[in-house]
Fold this sequence. Notes:
Bound molecules: adenosine monophosphate, magnesium ion
Oligomer: single chain
Helix content: 40-55%
Amino acid sequence: xxxxxxxxxxxxxxxxxxxxxxxxxxxxxxxxxxxxxxxxxxxxxxxxxxxxxxxxxxxxxxxxxxxxxxxxxxxxxxxxxxxxxxxxxxxxxxxxxxxxxxxxxxxxxxxxxxxxxxxxxxxxxxxxxxxxxxxxxxxxxxxxxxxxxxxxxxxxxxxxxxxxxxxxxxxxxxxxxxxxxxxxxxxxxxxxxxxxxxxxxxxxxxxxxxxxxxxxxxxxxxxxxxxxxxxxxxxxxxxxxxxxxxxxxxxxxxxxxxxxxxxxxxxxxxxxxxxxxxxxxxxxxxxxxxxxxxxxxxxxxxxxxxxxxxxxxxxxxxxxxxxxxxxxxxxxxxxxxxxxxxxxxxxxxxxxxxxxxxxxxxxxxxxxxxxxxxxxxxxxxxxxxxxxxxxxxxxxxxxxxxxxxxxxxxxxxxxxxxxxxxxxxxxxxxxxxxxxxxxxxxxxxxxxxxxxxxxxxxxxxxxxxxxxxxxxxxxxxxxxxxxx
Length: 484
Ligand code: AMP
Ligand code: MG
């Protein structure tokens, strides 16, 4: 353990050498701390209380290597918008795995820390606004109770990065259960060496799915376990209206966490066709398409695992297909339970799906705000006022009220369930963009205020009203960019 209480292990180094490259971050000119996540530092059992900002900046820029760290960049492949490419950490360094007092294992990774053998034509660097964006959205996701990588620090580098214009360079310290992706298995399978794939499977099962019975078909059990977690994650994204934006196979973590926040955003008005990524021309990664794409990605994982599922290829294919196909009905079931909870339907009834679909159809037609509509439903006075404007909605609310409030006791349970399931606050895109603009000018006040509010997304208070307001027409943001 070093003086900051980082307790590093570097278990990834036991894997086959083709899966990573050992190398150190490239030092930067003038590291300066922008933000440090004290809460996360405490959760991880770290101690930076008597450490100067200068020292923190030096450590989380990679200028000084933390004692015990053995940095590496990981190799992986990825289907980018469907097309298979060899990738790898082109601008990231895994410092090592921090083991907490509770024996939890977390990757500590620098992102934007310099070129690597996997950089292709990239500069290995990142800009300030996208790194702060990942910080905000990942921390919001965590407070919403959704599995995600976390953000420990952002530092500026004192160097410019060149995208469409010159931007301030920055490095994010990312904390994740691991960075093993669907694309890591695709890459391992491409090596055509059973040992490489097998050791990666053993490693991943031990790290993320230790309860799998290793006496049975391990690769197949693993596939089903990954499906289960991805289904859960897709349902959670649907619950809060999250759009990832680039669900390439390299951006899907096998831990079941949300990772790689790029052109992502949360829905304001409900529209299942919403895309934010400026390069997603055909809506491949639109809000409503996310479960299908997750299943498509899992089919790529299944292909990578075939040789380990069964030596007889036709048998392996039939077992893998059955697993991949199970995704849809599992998703439907879990999605229905989640939507029931959003509407406070404590006990399931046959017509629930119809009731849910009717509301979503109305929201889609009218462009109702996804977050606020579910909050308004439990406010009788507000509901009465809004529903009067629209006959279809008024009729729906009458049906819904009949369904939920047969007596005061059940009504209270219904409201409690809705409070737990429907956030009051999400990081709305127009607000995030304003905060990032200010931060780029050196004003961090609104960033801290937003982060503070996002810590309690299910609590309704007077102070949060400005964060609840959907964008006015001139504030709407239709696209976020990949130029990160
Ligand atoms: P992403 O869109 O962030 O998931 O990145 C896709 C791939 O491109 C990953 O392999 C990244 O490491 C790599 N990449 C993204 N930006 C850069 C950059 N500026 N320099 C080098 N590699 C990059
Ligand atoms: Mg990525």
